[in-house]
Amino acid sequence: MTTVTQLDAEAAAMVELAVATLAGRKIAVLTGAGVSTDSGIPDYRGHGAPVRTPMTAQQFLADEAARRRYWVGSHLGWKAFSAANPNGGHEALATLEARRIVAGVITQNVDGLHLRAGSSRVVELHGTMRRVFCTHCGQVFDRRDIAARVEADNPWITVPENIELAPDGDVLPQSTDGFVVPVCSVCSGMLKPDVVFFGEYIPVERFRDAEALVRASDALLIAGSSLVVNSGIRLVERARRRKIPVVIVNRGTTRADARATVKIDAGTTEVLTSLVESLPR
Question: How far apart are CA 205 and CA 78, in angstroms?
Answer without folding.
Answer: 28
